[in-house]
Design brief:
Helices cover about 80% and strands about 0% of the residues. The protein is an all-alpha fold. The longest helix has about 35 residues. The radius of gyration is 20 Å and the shape is globular. The mean pLDDT is about 85.
């Protein structure tokens, strides 16, 4: 039966089940402790409220992609023993992926909101905190979708978690290292659009740049003083939103495709 013709009770049942499993997910519990505890620690150590958003941006950049991947993988594997029962129901398998995504994203975004609420009590600017919540939500969407997809393509939980760590290292450290090396090459240095565009294809880098330029007007220059740089900075938040939707949609399509073709 097509998803659009399913009764609302089916979606409610799937969401209720996913909410219960999300609360029992160890990685979700650890994520909540680290993010909220880290926000309180940043507030205690930053010294002044205006510095708080920069500390929170770093916290989100380090913690959210890693735990989003781990949570997605663990969630995808925790129902393997129940697949015989779940797949015998007259419900498209993609509904389980979408329900899991919606529940996990909702839970992690609420954790981020709690962390930002602690920062608001410390006196951090509300506009900056709203920007951070949006950027944190973008990281949650992409990383949870990536984790769920990796979970569908790996045969065991341990193998899936190892794959998640490898992807996190590649997206967070290796990608930046390659871009940095390329930016030092003379031939590439004369093509600022190339290496800036390369950075902006990575959701982590796009969020990082949007956060840095959004929290404070950081001066930015490129070889040749490209005229398009000012326009690019103005459109950076919109680009990050489009990139997030594209990555999330593509990854979920892959996860649903894999699940649809999978045998018990």
């Amino acid at each position: 039966m097509p998803r659009s013709q399913l009764p609302a009770s089916v979606y409610r049942s799937v969401l209720r089940r996913e909410v219960t499993t999300t609360f029992h997910n160890r990685f979700v519990q650890i994520f909540a402790v680290i993010v909220i505890g880290g926000s309180i620690a940043v507030g205690a150590l930053s010294g002044r409220p205006s510095a708080l958003p920069f500390g929170l941006l770093l916290l989100f950049l380090y913690v959210v992609p890693l735990f989003g991947l781990l949570i997605g993988v663990s969630s995808a594997h925790e129902e393997r023993d129940e697949r015989a029962f779940l797949w015998s129901q007259p419900v498209p398998r993609s509904v389980y992926v979408l329900g899991k995504t919606a529940t996990l994203v909702g839970a992690l975004v609420l954790v981020l909101l709690a962390a930002l609420g602690a920062a608001a009590v410390e006196g951090a600017p509300l506009g900056a905190l709203a920007l951070l919540w949006g950027l944190g939500g973008a990281l949650v969407l992409v990383s949870v979708s990536a984790g769920l997809t990796v979970g569908q393509y790996t045969t065991g939980r341990a193998r899936g978690l190892m794959m998640a760590l490898t992807i996190w290292f590649g997206a967070f450290a290796l990608y930046d290292a390659v871009a940095l090396v390329l930016s030092g090459v003379d031939a590439v240095q004369n093509l600022p659009a190339f290496w800036v565009g390369l950075l902006l294809l990575n959701p982590v880098d796009a969020v990082r740049l949007t956060g840095l330029f959004g929290l404070e007007n950081v001066p930015f220059s490129a070889p040749g003083e490209a005229a398009w740089m000012a326009d690019l900075l103005a459109w950076l938040p919109a680009w990050t939103a489009v990139l997030t939707i594209a990555w999330t949609g593509g990854l979920l399509l892959l996860a649903c495709r894999r699940l649809r073709r999978m045998d018990l």
